[in-house]
TrEMBL record:
NCBIfam families: di_4Fe-4S_YfhL
Example of a GO cellular component annotation carried by this entry: cytoplasm
MF terms in GO: 4 iron, 4 sulfur cluster binding; metal ion binding
PANTHER family: PHOTOSYSTEM I IRON-SULFUR CENTER (PTHR24960:SF79), PHOTOSYSTEM I IRON-SULFUR CENTER-RELATED (PTHR24960)
Matches recorded under Gene3D superfamilies: 3.30.70.20
Domain 4Fe-4S ferredoxin-type as annotated: residue spans: 1-29, 31-64
Keywords assigned by UniProt, alphabetized: 4Fe-4S, Electron transport, Iron, Iron-sulfur, Metal-binding, Repeat, Transport
Protein name in UniProt: YfhL family 4Fe-4S dicluster ferredoxin
Organism: Vreelandella andesensis
Presence of the UniProt keyword Transport in the record: yes
Matching Pfam families: Fer4_7 (PF12838)
């Protein structure tokens, strides 16, 4: 699944630079994650880095975008042209 940022986001700016796919950007009111670029850090790290640094724990899995590990790896390969 891609990740999402909930409205509990406090705009602390720590998640954006941690994303290896540049999937996180400032939204109108809170940060947002582009689900087409989010691989949950598959291919880069063992765990999603944004979740690791978020001080308010507002980055859950997006239930609207179920993806298997294999699908996330495929997305990683496309994004990185690996």
């Amino acid at each position: 699944m891609a990740l999402m940022i909930t409205d509990e986001c406090i705009n602390c700016d720590v998640c954006e630079p941690e994303c290896p796919n540049d999937a996180i950007s400032p939204g109108d009111e809170i940060y947002v994650i582009d689900p087409n670029l989010c691989t949950e850090c598959v291919g880069h790290f063992d765990e999603p880095q944004c979740q690791q640094v978020c001080p308010v724990d507002c980055i859950p899995l997006d239930p609207e975008r179920p993806e298997t590990h294999e699908k996330l790896m495929e997305k990683y390969r496309i994004i990185t042209a690996a």
